[in-house]
TrEMBL record:
Protein name: Uncharacterized protein
Species of origin: Panagrolaimus sp. JU765
Length: 162
């Protein structure tokens, strides 16, 4: 009972931190400073490392994942979804790609971002911090290979969650 209360307190603390950061980002978007690189064009954040693969169109969530992840998550910024997806596809085909390893894949979709995780701790962190309703599905390696084909069609979220 005590451990459950402690987890609940930690979760509430993370949510409060998320809300504070989100409010500060909204203020920056409404009143950008001179040194801000904000633009009216949409940006896409392609994230690829040994434990997580995903594309986000929300810089705040990409940075929260980097801050809270147990692995060193890095992201590249692209001006179109297609360029971000091409980056992910190139990573999948590289020898360093975790897709070749026989590990389960944890797939998330919140109606805004679609992501693939290979590390359970990272996905737990993501679920604790996302402000959107989220869905989780554990996939086998065989389904993971199918996911690669879906990304080539640029229909990741529609194909996995239809």
């Amino acid at each position: 009972m005590e451990s459950q209360r402690k987890v609940s307190e930690e979760l509430n603390a993370l949510r409060l931190e998320y809300v504070k950061l989100e409010k500060s980002i909204k203020v920056e978007e409404e009143h950008p400073t001179n040194d801000s690189s904000s633009s009216t064009e949409k940006e896409f954040y392609a994230i690829a490392d040994g434990d997580h693969i995903g594309i986000s169109c929300n810089k705040f969530e990409a940075e929260m994942l980097m801050k809270l992840s147990i692995s060193k998550v890095k992201y590249q910024v692209f001006d179109s979804y297609e360029k971000a997806m091409n980056y992910i596809i190139a990573y999948e085909e590289s020898p360093e790609s975790p897709m070749a390893k026989d590990r389960p894949l944890y797939v998330t979709n919140d109606g805004y971002n679609s992501s693939i995780f290979l590390n359970w701790e990272d996905i737990r962190t993501w679920f604790k911090t996302t402000a959107y309703p989220s869905y989780r599905r554990v996939m086998t390696k065989k389904e993971g290979e199918k996911w690669i084909r879906f990304t080539r069609d640029l229909k990741l979220s529609k194909m996995i969650f239809s």
